[in-house]
Q: What sequence folds into this?
C-alpha cells in the first residue's frame, strides 16, 4: 500500500509528473507515493520520469479511483 | 519582431521540389485527359502516366506493372494491409505488425480486427528497434496472413532490421509489407519485401499521391470495389499532373539522396549532441546510429508539448510533436509509448533539401531560451 496519495485526476501531462517531482523531495527516502492520473500520457511519463531521476517505479494499478502509479523515493 | 520561417517538419510534408512544380505545371496543360480513352488527348495522358510509372518503378527497383499510384500514402497503406490480408485469407486471419507502425497501418489493422481478424503487435526496445526474436516467433505462428513493418520510424527515425525481419518472414512463408514512406527518395530500400508503400509529399512531391508496389507472385487481392485502373489495385482516376510531378521529383530526390544524406546526417548529429548539453533535462530518443539521416526527436521534461510548439512557431520554427496535448485524440504517440520514453514536451525535427546549416544553428541557439522561459512560466525550474 502507498504511504500517501497525490490526486492528479483531471490534470493533463506534464502536470501529474510535475506534482510527483515536487512531492518526492518532501517525503522520506523509501516512501511510496501513489499518483492518481487519468491522462493516458501519465502511463508513459511517470515511469520515464523515474528512470530519468533514478527513482523507483513500483508499478501501475487501476483501482476504484482509476489509473494510479506508485513511485518510491529511492534517494 | 517576427522571425524568418524555418520549416523543420519534412517528415510530415517536405517542401515541394522545384522539379515537381515544373512537372506539375506542364502536366496541367498536357495531362488532364483520361488516360484510358481512345483519342489523341487521352493518348498523350497515357504516355505521361506510363512514363511516370516507368521512372518511379525504376527508382524503387520494381517492374512497372507491379506499381500503382494511389490517391495518398494513407490509401496505399490501407490497401497494402487489407489487400495482403484478403489475398491470404485462406491461410489465416492474423496480421503481425510492429508496435511503431504509422497510424494508417494501425487503423487498417483495427478494421481487420473489427471484422473478426487478429492483430499481433510486436514490441520494440527503448531505442525504437523491433524485437526480432518476438517478431520471428510471431510470424512463425499458424494462421499468419501478412506481416507489416515500417522501414524506419517516422517519429523517432530508428531504422528497422528489415532484412532480418524479411528473412524470418521468408522462412515462415509469410509475405512482408513495408511502409517505406520515410525512406523512399532518401535512403536505399531494404530487400525482401512483397508489398511496399510510400507517399510523394514526404520526398518533395505534391500531396495526394501514394505508391503501392506489389511484387509478382504475391497473393494480394484488392480490398476495394472493382476498378480496372492502376493494375486493379486501387480505384478512381489518378491525379495525373500530381503523379507526373511525384515521379519527376522522386527521380531528382533519389539522384541527390546520397549527397543529401551526407549533408543532413551531420546536422542531425549536431542537434543530437548539443540539445541535451545546452537544454537541461532533455531526453533525445531513437537510435543514435541506425537512424534516418534527416530526423531527430527529443523530449523536454516538465514542458507542455503544445506550449512548446506554439513558442517555437512564434520564433518561426515549424516542428512536429508526439505529445498527447498536440494530438486530436489527446493520447501520447503510440511510438513513444511503445519505446517507454518521455512523451510530454516532445519535439520532432525533420530536415529537407532546403534546410541550411544556419537554420539548424538558429534553432540550436534559440531552443534553450524558449524551453527555459516555458519552465520558468510553469514554475518547474530546479525540480
A:
Amino acid at each position: 500500500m502507498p504511504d500517501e496519495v497525490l490526486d492528479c485526476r483531471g490534470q493533463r501531462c506534464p502536470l501529474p509528473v510535475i506534482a510527483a517531482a515536487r512531492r518526492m523531495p518532501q517525503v522520506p527516502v523509501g516512501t511510496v507515493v501513489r499518483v492518481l492520473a487519468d491522462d493516458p500520457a501519465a502511463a508513459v511519463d511517470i515511469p520515464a520520469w523515474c528512470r530519468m531521476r533514478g527513482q523507483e517505479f513500483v508499478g501501475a494499478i487501476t483501482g476504484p479511483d482509476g489509473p494510479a502509479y506508485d513511485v518510491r523515493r529511492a534517494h | 519582431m517576427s522571425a524568418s520561417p524555418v520549416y523543420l517538419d519534412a517528415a510530415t510534408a517536405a517542401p515541394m521540389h522545384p522539379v515537381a512544380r515544373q512537372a506539375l505545371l506542364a502536366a496541367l496543360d498536357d495531362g488532364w485527359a483520361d488516360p484510358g480513352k481512345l483519342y489523341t488527348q487521352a493518348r498523350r495522358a497515357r504516355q505521361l502516366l506510363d512514363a511516370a510509372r516507368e521512372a518511379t518503378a525504376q527508382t524503387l527497383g520494381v517492374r512497372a506493372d507491379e506499381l500503382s499510384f494511389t490517391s495518398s500514402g494513407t490509401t496505399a497503406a490501407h490497401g497494402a494491409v487489407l489487400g495482403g490480408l484478403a489475398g491470404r485469407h485462406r491461410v489465416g486471419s492474423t496480421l503481425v505488425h510492429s508496435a511503431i507502425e504509422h497510424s494508417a497501418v494501425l487503423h487498417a489493422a483495427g478494421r481487420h480486427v473489427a471484422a473478426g481478424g487478429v492483430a499481433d503487435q510486436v514490441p520494440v526496445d527503448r531505442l525504437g528497434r523491433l524485437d526480432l526474436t518476438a517478431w520471428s516467433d510471431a510470424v512463425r505462428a499458424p494462421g499468419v496472413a501478412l506481416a507489416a513493418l515500417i522501414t524506419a520510424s517516422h517519429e523517432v527515425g530508428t531504422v528497422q532490421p528489415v532484412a532480418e525481419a524479411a528473412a524470418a518472414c521468408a522462412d515462415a512463408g509469410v509475405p512482408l509489407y513495408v511502409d517505406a514512406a520515410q525512406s523512399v527518395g532518401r535512403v536505399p530500400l531494404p530487400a525482401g519485401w512483397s508489398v511496399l508503400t510510400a507517399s510523394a509529399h514526404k520526398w518533395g512531391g505534391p500531396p495526394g499521391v501514394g505508391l503501392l508496389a506489389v511484387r509478382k507472385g504475391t497473393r494480394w487481392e484488392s480490398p476495394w470495389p472493382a476498378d480496372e485502373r492502376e493494375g486493379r489495385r486501387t480505384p478512381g482516376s489518378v491525379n495525373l499532373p500530381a503523379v507526373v510531378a511525384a515521379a519527376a521529383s522522386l527521380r531528382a530526390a533519389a539522384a541527390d539522396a546520397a549527397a543529401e544524406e551526407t549533408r543532413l546526417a551531420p546536422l542531425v548529429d549536431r542537434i543530437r549532441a548539443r540539445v541535451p548539453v545546452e537544454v537541461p533535462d532533455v531526453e533525445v530518443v531513437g537510435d543514435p546510429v541506425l537512424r534516418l539521416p534527416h530526423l531527430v526527436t527529443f523530449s523536454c521534461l516538465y514542458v507542455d508539448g503544445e506550449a512548446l510548439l506554439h513558442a517555437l512557431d512564434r520564433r518561426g520554427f515549424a516542428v512536429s510533436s508526439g505529445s498527447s496535448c498536440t494530438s486530436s485524440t489527446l493520447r501520447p504517440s503510440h511510438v513513444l509509448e511503445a519505446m517507454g520514453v518521455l512523451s510530454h514536451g516532445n519535439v520532432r525535427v525533420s530536415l529537407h533539401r532546403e534546410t541550411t546549416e544556419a537554420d539548424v544553428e538558429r534553432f540550436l541557439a534559440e531552443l534553450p531560451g524558449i524551453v527555459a522561459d516555458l519552465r520558468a512560466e510553469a514554475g518547474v525550474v530546479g525540480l
User: Anything to note?
Assistant: The two ends of chain B are 32 Å apart (CA to CA).
